[in-house]
Amino acid sequence: MSDQGNRRRVVIIGGGFAGLFAARALKRAPVQVTLIDKAEHHLFQPLLYQCATGILSEGKIAASLRALLRKHRNVEFVLAEVTGIDAERRRVMATRPGRKTAEFGYDYLIVAAGVEQSYFGHDEFARYAPGMKTIEDALVIRRRVFGAFEIAESAADPAERRRWLTFALVGAGPTGVELAGQIRELATKTLREEYRHIKPEDARVLLFDGGAAPQATGAKQDRAGRIEVGPDLSVPAHPEIMVTGDVMSLNKLPGVAEVAMQTGLYAGRRIRHELRGEVYKKPFRYYDLGSAAYLSRGRAVVSVGKLQFAGFPGWVVWLFIHIGFLTGYRNRFGAVLSWWFAFTRDLRRERTYTTRQVGIVGDVYEEPPTQASAAAGSEQAP
Ligand SMILES: Cc1cc2nc3c(=O)[nH]c(=O)nc-3n(C[C@H](O)[C@H](O)[C@H](O)COP(=O)(O)OP(=O)(O)OC[C@H]3O[C@@H](n4cnc5c(N)ncnc54)[C@H](O)[C@@H]3O)c2cc1C
User: Fold this and answer.
1) Which of 20, 41, 45, 325 to mutate to test ligand 1, by most ligand atoms within 8 A of the CB atom?
2) Half-sphere exposure (Cβ direction) of 225: Cα atoms closer than 13 Å
3) Residue by residue, what is the 3-state secondary structure of 355-379?
4) Per-residue pLDDT at 224
């Protein structure tokens, strides 16, 4: 690639659906692409709840970005956390591992950084209620769910047992519904015969939904800090900066994978056209391909255009959609195998934990010790 030094530079922030699809759209384009992500993997967020409930391992819902991009010769992956953008100087600032700072110049910038978990102004809830955005979140939830059954098993007081067997989820969107369904399935099927002092099927799952929470913040549609863009996905006064995926706010489009993929593709396509000297006037248009949610084993709801599937047919369609969109053929194969074991034999293999981790689960919900009780405790210590 002798002409690489003269090529226009495209920086993509984020290797989720939007960033990855933008990079793919630029494959073989005469540009040098730098994709920066603070994670080394592309994460399939729609299946996080299956990782949180022990069906799939983290490796089956995440694929290495370096491996995914290895054949895109004009794309370099950089593991770093972006800390700022200087739009005037056209530079992206980032921190690389080892706390080294770095700057990346660009001719085009595609922002595809997704959004953080929102607690609607109550970040203090995060200690008790982990979000569901990253692999780390899913693993914390997994430890808390399985750990709660362990603590209940060792509790002598029936009221305490009942408390530990009560799971409260906030947010009754598809993820909340799917996670609630999985915890019940876990309790009534997988764990049914594994405990001697508790009946896992007694577990109660409470699903709360506060439809009024967004209004409470006073914000309108941009409550998650999403960036408003024009019809070509660019920000005002900077046509070279495009915002894609969840972090973008346009025509109230939902934060779903399809929007992220289609905006990523659009951004890549627009750059290709402009490199050829063409003016790309086509505004971004979203094609809604439908939605799907898994309820419990063998039951899902799927809506594709005018077609609606529910129950078992819905589950079959759900299965094919997810196999199709999982990134990396090894992930697909592994996921199908894990589903086979989970659905036919009640097996959830992904649940390793130790007393230490279960202890941490308990500590999270404990009242912090008062000074008096801490002093009393230290007096009794041998
Ligand atoms: C639990 C859950 C379930 C979902 N279920 C569905 C579903 O069933 N169907 C559906 O269509 N959609 C679903 N979604 C939504 C869908 O996953 C998102 O719309 C999609 O992932 C958004 O893609 P994105 O590329 O915009 O952002 P993301 O996938 O969030 O990717 C953003 C990337 O940017 C990186 N990043 C962020 N900040 C920085 C930084 N400062 N520096 C460097 N890198 C950074 C992150 O590490 C990440 O890799 C679900 C989402 C979640 C969380």
Assistant:
1) 45
2) 9
3) HHHHHHHHHHHCCCCCHHHHHHHHH
4) 64
Domain carrying residue 104: 7-117+217-275
> What is the CA(379)–ligand 1 centre distance, in A?
50
* Of 206, 205, 196, 190, nearest in space to 152 by CA: 196
State the greatest distance between any 2 C-alpha atoms of the chain, in Å, as a whole number: 80
Residue whose entry in the numeric block shows the structure tokens 């899913």: 138
Q: How far is the CA of 76 from the centre of ligand 1 (A)?
A: 21
How confident is the model over 45-77, as pLDDT tens digits? 999 999 999 999 999 999 999 999 999 999 999
> Is 368 within a domain?
no
Residue 284 inside a domain? The answer is no
Q: Whose CA is nearest to atom 12 of ligand 1?
A: 256
- Classify residue 91 as exposed, middle or buried by CB count within 10 Å of its CB (0-12, 13-18, 19+): middle
**Atom 7 (ligand 1): residue with closest C-alpha?**
46
Angle in degrees, CA 65, 71, 75, rounded to 5? 65
Per-residue pLDDT tens for 328-346? 777 888 888 888 888 888 8
Q: Is 234 among the domain residues? A: yes
Ligand 1 atom with least separation from CA of 247: 26
**Residue 166, domain member (yes or no):** no
Ligand 1 centroid to Cα of residue 255, in Å, is 8
Other Cβ atoms within 10 Å of 76 Cβ, number? 14
